[in-house]
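Re: that chain you flagged

S.,

Sorry for the slow reply, it's been a week of failed gels. I finally had a moment to sit down with the sequence you sent. For the record, here it is as I used it:
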Amino acid sequence: MTINSMKRKLQEGKCVYGSWVRIPSPIVVEALGSVGFDFLHIDLEHSSIDLPMLDYMVLAGYSQDIQLIVRTASQNPADLYRIMDIGVSSFILPRIETAEQCAKLLQGIRYSPAGARGLGGPVRGNRWGVISLDQHMEEAEKETTVIVQIESKEGLANLDSILEVNGIDVIYIGPLDLSQALGYPGQVEHPIVQETIHSMVKTIRDKGIAVGIHASDTEQAKYWAEHGIQYFTVGMDVTLLQSAGLSLMNSLK
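Prediction finished late last night. Pasting the structure tokens below so you have them in one place:
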């Protein structure tokens, strides 16, 4: 398992920046992984990326030394350690609504005694058995990053108890989903949505856990960095491609 430099930066109180990948291609990971992001979110929840393709994308991430964080599509703990065996060390867990649900998923991420992740023998996650089992288990505990996404009324209501679950590194806020949960779909700048985010940031930071958010642009990222958020996603492969294409076409016209 490679050293998680992104996690180190968070622990040092620094901001980290990444983007979303939904296009099922290792070339996208190579291209975006070369521009200086701290991490990339590989989105299994809202894309056609499957496990064989993820395998290739993980190898592309290794080639660029970029931290890949997988957003899962299922609520099955076994799916998590299957993904970890192919070399993924970090997850963003969507639709977390209760502490019990969160704790069950984290069981699939961590080895005994903290969890119930299965020992798979020689896998990419332990360099195909080259490193010792003890070293692999130590690295897995140290280098894994767990990001929990709160995006519903139930998640908001249970935020305090979710924060008590051991092993959470970041609580990630999706403003679009949050706006819908609060009854203002798409209105991320609505005062109630903004007040809710500020309240969440204070509650989460008071527990010593980092806060993440998706920022629509650099100005929004700067604003939230000034208000206690450290972990940012900005942009997405599809929108970055569209934006570049539109800019080119507008200049040609």
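What I noticed first: The chain has one domain: 5-252.

Talk soon,
D.
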